[in-house]
Amino acid sequence: RRSRALVRRAGRAYDALREDEAAAMRHRTVSDLIRRQDLAHLPPDAAVRDAVRLMAGRHIGAILVTEGGQLTGIFTERDMVNRVVAAGRDPDGTVLAEVMTGNPRTVDGDTLAVTALRIMQNGQFRHLPVMRDGQLTGILSLRDFGSSEYAEMEREHEFEQAIAEGGRAAD
């Protein structure tokens, strides 16, 4: 009996801890996700091959394109495939300015992680530069998000569906 009560108490404590962790995860900011990043960036006149080598060496899927400390674009694996390889361009003779995505969407470091995930999913992109006070501080990747952000997105989607269905029923 005593051991069963102890197991139940431990189970309740574990459940409470998991709920606290889940609540904390729902309030994570973009800055929480990108701590300790060593930004990979190149100037717009860098060759595509240099960008791809840097990406391969760091095992990353995107390079930030900067000039004078300012973000001018982003070059991703998709850009490499669609704008260089599929287009038959020479990676040594093509510069990033010709094939990057210019003026990419950005978020502030204080943005909630789930909000950033929503922006990325709505925009159908995998990488999102992060700014703070006008300065580039990091880059988010879909891999940076945890299951709690995806679960929150699913809850929001279900809520929106319920509202839409309820609205139709009232018509």
User: What is the quaternary state of this protein?
Assistant: single chain
User: What spatial order of strands do you see in the largest sheet?
Assistant: 1-2-3-4
Radius of gyration: 22 Å
How many strand segments? Answer: 7
Terminal residue distance: 57 Å
Major beta-sheet overview: 4 strands, mixed
**Helix amount:** 40-55%
In short:
This protein has 171 residues and is α/β, with parallel strands linked by helices.
Question: Could you walk me through the main structural features you see in this protein, from its secondary elements to its overall organization?
Answer:
With 171 residues, the protein is an alpha/beta fold. The protein is 51% helix and 19% strand. A four-stranded mixed sheet has the order 1-2-3-4. A three-stranded mixed sheet has the order 5-6-7. Helix 6 packs across helix 7 (147-170). The radius of gyration is 22 Å and the shape is elongated. It starts with a helix and ends with a helix.
List key phrases describing it:
alpha/beta; 3-stranded mixed beta sheet; 171 residues; 7 helices; single chain; 4-stranded mixed beta sheet; 7 strands
What's the SSE blueprint?
Layout: H1 2-26, H2 30-33, E1 41-42, H3 48-58, E2 62-67, E3 70-76, H4 77-85, H5 96-99, E4 101-102, E5 107-108, H6 113-123, E6 127-132, E7 135-141, H7 147-170
Parallel strand pairs: 1-2, 5-6
Antiparallel strand pairs: 2-3, 3-4, 6-7
Helix pairs in contact: 6-7
